[in-house]
Amino acid sequence: MNSLNEQVVLVDRNDNRIGLMEKLEAHEKGLLHRAFSVLLFNNQKELLLQQRAFDKYHCGGLWTNTCCSHPHPGEDVKDAALRRLREEMGIECDLKKSFEFIYRAEFDNGLTEHEYDHVFTGTFSGAPVINLHEVADWKYLSREALQIDMTKHPENYTPWFKIIIDKMR
Predict the structure, then answer these.
(1) pLDDT digits (tens, 9 = 90+) for 112-141
(2) What's the family (predicted)?
(3) Domains: count for the chain
């Protein structure tokens, strides 16, 4: 199945499930749906970033958190985060829930991200084994180096990642 045909879980502002919709349609209509973001830090407290594959349906080629996606209908959000971390980055590690937030971002291609985002953190110090259909590149950055680069080149980062970094400060 094409990933754009996958269903996302539509939610209200309290993350209560209110329905299902194909992922592309939810992004075309800008409807609030459940998502997650994962941030992994190495032993030097550097963050593992991924550069999204260039052919992604939005934000292709932009740098972002270690992994992000949507849980399948009926799938626990943490289980979904662990699954996508394996699928995108080839990583298995423990995750801890950090916080949740809602954001909305409109893109030039007419799509809108409107997500109830569950943010998880964990520790991993190795080299990921990236899925080239999902990820173009990766790197570890210290918080200081990341902050400097995000200030100089905000256009290189995804909208939700900017919010997450701001909330983690």
Answers:
(1) 999 999 999 999 999 999 999 999 999 999
(2) Belongs to the IPP isomerase type 1 family.
(3) 1
